[in-house]
Amino acid sequence: MKKIILLSIFALIICLMPFASQAAGGTFVNLDKQTIEKGYSINFDDGNFSIAILPGTFNKETKIRLKKDNYQVAKNKGYRRISDLYKVRCRKDECGKLQNDLFLTMRFNNPGFNNKWIMYFNPKTNSWHRLETTLIDDGMLAMASISRKNMRQIAVFERLHTAKKHKIPRSTDSVKKIKHGKQFYLSVRPNTFSREVGMRVKQVNQYKYPQLPDEDILSNLFHYKVIEGKKPKQAITIKIRSKKHTDNPVKIKKYTKKRGWTDLDTEYKADKMIAQAHHSGKRGIFGLFESREFQEGGASWYNWHGAASNDYPMGTELKVTNLANGQSCYTTVVSTGPFTPGLIIDLPLDKFGEIADPDTGIIQVRVEKI
User: Fold this and answer.
1) In sequence order, what are the residues at sequence separation of 6 or more whose Cβ sits closer than 8 angstroms to the Cβ of residue 262?
2) CATH number at 2-159
3) Which contacts of 20-23 are long-range, i.e. CB under 8 A and separated by 24 or more positions?
4) What share of the chain is helix, strand, coil (3-state, %, to 5)?
5) Contact 269, 245 (CB under 8 A)
6) How many Cβ atoms from other residues are within 10 Å of residue 319's Cβ?
7) Residue 292 has pLDDT above 80, yes or no
8) What is the pLDDT of residue 293?
9) What is the pLDDT of residue 29?
10) Which of 139-153, 241-255, 268-282, 285-299 has the largest mean confidence?
11) What is the model's pLDDT at position 25?
């Protein structure tokens, strides 16, 4: 119910056009009596920060100042800031009494999978406080309501899971289970190691790995490392929880500098959105990926009797769809290529002509294996 209300407020923010005056100290918004009675929305910093003011929120004419801050006044342990910082000021002699909550919308810049909140800094407690936050997944927007008219600083933060070290005994009667956040789980069976060892587990930043597979990632990336111990005598069980339901094939993948990303033999329980695999190494970086059953990219044509592709073996039958008009053709791979960046297939001229004018040269297509 609260999400529906916030989405309605979001619509109000979009529909109402704000008026504000610019000054060296920030943006000043003057709300007269008529405006307060009708309700108002303030879009600041090109819409990255918005405040929706419901009708009757203030009991008299009010002047609000908004400003973008350059530095964070205090650390927020366990969190990482993923938006700009903003300051909202309403001087006592220029501000009416707050009758309703203010509704905030903030844009952030890291989609990720960690929990995210709009948080404000309270100078009295010298700490950051979380607001109950609703996320609009596709737009990377966070929404929340607040019963404060002065905000020393406010921003969007995501929860970080710091590295943790776990002791793994040499022999135990039960399985040692390790949980890191709500997505990554390890199970170590008895006598996996010949002596007691340490195991360090942490979340890693996926943007440090630009060579991610050309597949949809369903989790954060996690790293574990056995400290001061030999290779395990039996496999360690890895479980990763997906952040969305999917009916497509799912794989846990491991990354190494030498081999890049490789698939692990994965069992996926769609009802619980949990993938499980086994790994016999001392260390590794792991993530959960959804296999795409299609590719999208550029297509050109050439004078030949079949298609050229570097991604499918000879003889593979393909369906190729023009993304601009939805028209499709069917062809068979008979050669390798193309070797031009951005192109994923060369079509024979007659097949290209079924879905586009050959004079177009290059079109954007979806390629699916039949």
Assistant:
1) 253, 254, 255, 256
2) 2.60.220.50
3) 20/44, 20/66
4) 10, 50, 40
5) no
6) 15
7) no
8) 72
9) 87
10) 268-282
11) 58
Q: What gap in Å lies between CA 31 and CA 172, rounded to an integer?
A: 68
Alpha carbon distance 38, 23 (integer Å): 26
Confidence of residue 214 (pLDDT cuts 50, 70, 90): low
Q: Are 338 and 345 in contact (CB under 8 A)?
A: yes
Tokens standing for residue 172:
């135990």
Domain 294-369 classified CATH 2.40.40.10? yes
Separation of first and last alpha carbons in the chain: 43
Strand duo 307-308 + 328-335: pairing: parallel
Burial 165-200 (b: 16+ CB within 10 A, else e): ebebeeeeeeebebebbebbbbbbeeebbeeebebe
Instruction: Over range 191-204, report the average pLDDT.
Output: 89
Taking the CA atoms of residue 231, residue 235, residue 237 and residue 240 in that order, the dihedral angle to the nearest 10 degrees is 70
Distance between CA 34 and CA 58 in Å, rounded? 11
Cα dist from 81 to 76, 102, 141, whole Å: 8, 22, 14
Where in the chain are all domains bearing CATH 2.60.220.50?
Answer: 2-159
Q: Does the pLDDT of residue 1 top 60, yes or no?
A: no
Dihedral pair phi/psi, residue 352, rounded to 5°: -60, -40
User: What distance in Å separates the CA atoms of residue 35 and residue 57, rounded to the nearest whole number?
Assistant: 10
On whether the CB atoms of residues 351 and 335 are closer than 8 A, the answer is no
Q: Quick check: 102 and 90 in contact, CB under 8 A?
A: no
Q: Extract the tokens encoding 349.
A: 């001229």
What are the tens digits of pLDDT across the range 5-60? 555 554 544 444 444 445 445 788 888 888 888 888 888 988 899 999 999 888 88
Q: Which CATH number fits domain 164-290: 2.60.220.30, 2.30.42.10, 3.40.50.300, 3.90.1580.10?
A: 2.60.220.30
Other residues' Cβ atoms within 10 Å of the Cβ of residue 28: 16
Two tokens at 23? 């000054």
Burial grade of 154 (CB within 10 A; 0-12, 13-18, 19 or more): buried
- Stretch (H or E) spanning 117: strand 116-122
